[in-house]
């Protein structure tokens, strides 16, 4: 049935078989590039940190007892000598009163021995007593004076302990934590209130093991607060000699120089370490690098053919967001800086948005 239908299908199949295949458009990737140039760069690192006080004291009573009252709360600013808390000082007041009574008793005994010694001196001059008797009276006077001095010192100690029943701020600062509450019995020296001294402020950062030797030689740094774009001057005050057991990093404290009053404790900051390198070097942005296994590559652009080829490089150092190249590229080479993970060897490319070849990265020209 319908022989003409089979004839038509056969003719269509024959025509399709004899026609040429439709050519596939070549894949041309858009890329952004830069022209390599040697520049005077700096060995830099940017580490996150936190603003902290240089001194944070855990303040406690110098005597033990039950806390009877607390006069401050977390976040409250305090002045030097301001009352923070009190303990029940009844026993210390009684001990101070007993010590004062002992002083009075010792003073009476001392005065009596002094009067007796003067009389025995007169008797000795008249020849009524011997020198040995006078020496015994002198020893009794010395003993009475020593007992009076001991009682007087013990009275001072008891008076001090009675005064220690009031906990006072050691300096101007802000209360950061309360470690004991009213009704709690605390031992001498146990932390009751934590105070951050507001005088000197620092930024605490963690230095990785791999950067310790390089950053240890840098003393002056720049500090950028996350709350605003202003930069502050800083100086490395100390680097811990031992690494943190958990993070395996070395804590470092950066003293802020002339920090404004609006720098608040707990603010986030970035500490920028910079040290100019002795000679011009080639620096490339991190996004231009492609790492496969143990080898690092960059894509070099052939301007005539508009194709790319992979070129291995060696990384000599890190400079902020750039890497200092030891070998593999030379000044004048054109390097792909965007789209490196989408390229293949010999692939055709075009400049992104028709842009011209860019110059070296800005961070590579930092002094």
Radius of gyration: 42 Å
Give the CA-CA distance, first to last residue. Answer: 90 Å
CATH topology of the largest domain: conserved putative lor/sdh protein from methanococcus maripaludis s2 fold
* Unreliable sequence segments: 355-367
Number of strands: 23
Q: Can you identify the CATH class of the largest domain?
A: Mainly Beta
Strand composition percent: 35-45%
Largest sheet geometry: 6 strands, antiparallel
Report helical residue fraction: 10-25%
Strand neighbour order, sheet with most strands: 2-17-21-20-19-18
Structural class, from helix and strand content? alpha+beta
CATH architecture of the largest domain: Beta Barrel
* SSE topology string: HEEEEEEEHHEEEEEHEEEEEEEEEEE
Count of individual helical segments: 4
Q: Mean pLDDT, nearest integer?
A: 83
Question: Which term fits the overall shape?
Answer: elongated
Number of domains: 4
Task: Report on the architecture of this protein.
The chain is an alpha+beta fold and 367 residues long. It has 4 domains: 101 residues, conserved putative lor/sdh protein from methanococcus maripaludis s2 fold; 83 residues, Efflux pump adaptor protein, beta barrel domain (Elongation Factor Tu (Ef-tu), domain 3, Beta Barrel); 62 residues, OB fold (Dihydrolipoamide Acetyltransferase, E2P) (Beta Barrel), CATH 2.40.50; 74 residues, Helix Hairpins (Orthogonal Bundle), CATH 1.10.287. The longest helix has 37 residues. The N and C termini lie far apart (90 Å). The C terminus is likely disordered.
């Amino acid at each position: 049935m319908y022989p003409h239908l089979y004839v038509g299908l056969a003719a269509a199949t024959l025509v399709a078989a004899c026609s040429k295949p439709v050519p596939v458009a070549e894949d041309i990737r858009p890329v952004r590039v830069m022209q390599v140039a040697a520049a005077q760069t700096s060995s830099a690192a940017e580490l996150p940190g936190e603003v902290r006080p240089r001194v944070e004291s855990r303040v406690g009573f110098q005597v033990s007892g039950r806390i009877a009252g607390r006069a401050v709360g977390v976040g409250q600013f305090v002045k030097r000598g301001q009352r923070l808390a009190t303990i029940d000082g009844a026993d210390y007041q009684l001990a101070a009163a007993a010590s004062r009574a002992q002083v009075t008793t010792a003073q009476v005994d001392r005065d009596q021995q002094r009067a007796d010694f003067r009389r025995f001196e007169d008797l000795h001059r008249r020849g009524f007593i011997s020198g040995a008797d006078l020496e015994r009276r002198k020893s009794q006077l010395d003993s009475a004076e020593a007992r009076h001095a001991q009682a007087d010192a013990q009275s001072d100690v008891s008076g001090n302990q009675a005064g220690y029943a009031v906990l006072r701020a050691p300096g101007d600062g802000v209360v950061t934590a309360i470690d004991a509450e009213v009704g709690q019995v605390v031992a001498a020296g146990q932390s009751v209130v934590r105070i951050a001294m507001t005088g000197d402020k620092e930024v605490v950062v963690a230095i990785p093991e791999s950067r310790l030797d390089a950053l240890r030689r840098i003393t002056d740094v720049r500090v950028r607060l996350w709350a605003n774009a202003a930069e502050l001057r800083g100086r490395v005050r100390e680097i811990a000699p031992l690494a943190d057991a958990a993070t395996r990093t070395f804590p470092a404290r950066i003293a802020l120089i002339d920090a404004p009053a609006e720098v608040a404790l707990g603010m986030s900051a970035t500490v920028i370490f910079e040290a100019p390198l002795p000679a011009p070097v080639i620096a490339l942005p991190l996004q231009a690098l492609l790492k496969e296994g143990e080898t690092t590559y960059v894509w070099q652009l052939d301007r005539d053919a508009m194709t790319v080829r992979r070129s291995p490089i060696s990384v000599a150092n890190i400079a902020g967001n750039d890497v200092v190249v030891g070998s593999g590229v030379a000044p004048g080479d054109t390097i792909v800086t965007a789209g490196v993970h989408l390229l293949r060897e010999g692939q055709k490319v075009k400049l992104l948005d028709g842009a011209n070849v860019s110059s070296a990265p800005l961070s590579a020209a930092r002094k």
